[in-house]
Write a structure and sequence with these properties.
single chain; mainly alpha; Tetracycline Repressor, domain 2; 10 helices; about 0% strand; HTH-type_Tx_Regulator; DNA-binding
């Protein structure tokens, strides 16, 4: 039952935001009593913490399945973006923005964990892109990795509209890729930008 509550709460938090959804909403959605939820979670903050762990785990499992496919480095980044867009498609207000505003301590833990996870993903992507001739081999990988996740996380935490956040993320991805790309990489980037704007 605990896992079911976390899964349902995660789904609702992503759709409507961490502040908007109450324990009553979760109980009603699951056709259980609020007392059942409190049996496993003494307060909403604890449920939010467990839910963010669940969401992060789910996201990184999906990212892992994307990275083991035979995408080139630029295509891989666009596939990951598509996955996030799909995951947050029904959200009007950014769940990350709500988390930062109303539950800052949990937000800090989430961001710290994300930075650690993303550091290796972004670093590996740049290394592969260099091998594939899509990114310049003169890049300082440490700096470019840091630039990218700082830009991404500053947008996620400061944009209340999910739609606006996703548009800004696309522009950051373009900015990041153009900064690293070879001529071959620019051609690949333009192809994916064309597809993402359809």
């Amino acid at each position: 039952m605990k896992e079911k509550i976390i899964a349902k709460a995660s789904e609702l938090f992503l759709k409507f935001g961490f502040k908007s959804i109450t324990m009553d909403d979760i109980a009603t959605e699951m056709c259980i009593s609020k007392k059942t939820i409190y049996k496993y979670f003494c307060n909403k903050e604890l449920l939010i913490e467990e839910s963010t762990n669940f969401i992060q785990k789910e996201i990184h499992q999906i990212i892992e399945t994307i990275t083991i496919q035979n995408h080139n480095a630029i295509e891989e980044n666009f596939e990951i973006r598509k996955m996030f867009k799909e995951m947050f498609k029904s959200a009007e207000n950014s769940p990350v923005y709500q988390l930062k505003k109303h539950y800052p301590e949990i937000y800090e833990k989430v961001i710290l964990n994300e930075i650690n996870q993303c550091d290796s993903i972004f670093r590996k992507n740049i290394q592969e892109g260099i091998k594939q001739g899509l990114y310049r081999n003169t890049i300082n990988i440490d700096h470019y990795t840091k630039f990218y996740y700082n830009l991404i996380f500053s947008i996620k935490g400061s944009t209340s509209s999910e739609k606006e956040g996703q548009q800004l993320e696309l522009e950051i991805l373009e900015y990041h890729t153009r900064a690293m790309a070879t001529e071959k990489g620019i051609i690949e980037l333009e192809k994916h930008l064309l597809n993402s704007n359809k």
